[in-house]
Amino acid sequence: MTAKATTSATFEQDVLQAEGPVLVDFWAAWCGPCRMVAPVLDEIQAENPDKITVLKLNVDENPDLAMKYQITSIPAMKVFSGGEVATTIIGAKPKFALEQDLAEFLK
User: Fold this and answer.
1) Catalytic pick among 15, 23, 31, 66
2) Which residues on adjacent β-strands are paired with residue 53?
3) Which residues pair with 24 in a beta bridge?
4) pLDDT, the chain, mean
5) CA distance 2 to 24
6) How far is residue 10's CA from residue 71's CA, in Å, rounded to a whole number?
7) What is the topology classification, in CATH, of domain 4-102?
8) For the chain, N or C: smaller number of CB within 10 Å?
9) pLDDT tens across 32-64, in order?
10) What is the DSSP string of the chain?
């Protein structure tokens, strides 16, 4: 897992005030599908370092943000742009499907 972690303490600076789009991966250590999608997100980040930032947010350690952003199932990924949620992706998907979902941010 190479994606940087964000927390309730750093979320505003890391995500809401960030330049460019930020994908936040809402996950938990006990979540099997979360562990499956993590390396795919790492690959997307590595291949597009100047287009999108990928951050991880542990929902067990940051329940306030999970509640604020209405995370009811994980993995859930939200792309923030300009401090607002631009798109939401629910569930583990293969790389090509995630890249399709993120196409507008990976141009």
Assistant:
1) 31
2) 22
3) 55, 78
4) 95
5) 13
6) 19
7) Glutaredoxin (3.40.30)
8) C
9) 999 999 999 999 999 999 999 999 999 999 999
10) --SEE--TTTHIIIIIT-SS-EEEEEE-TT-HHHHHHHHHHHHHHHH-TTT-EEEEEETTT-HHHHHHTT--SSSEEEEEETTEEEEEEES---HHHHHHHTGGG--
Given 34, 54, 77, 79, the catalytic residue:
34
State both tokens at 29.
């250590």
Note if 5 is an active site residue.
no
Q: Which tokens belong to 53?
A: 């930032």
Instruction: Report how far apart the first and last C-alpha atoms of the chain are (Å, whole number).
Output: 24
pTM above 0.70? Answer: yes
What b-and-e string marks burial along 13-42, b requiring 16 or more CB atoms within 10 Å of the CB? Answer: ebbeebeebbbbbbbbeebeebeebbebbb
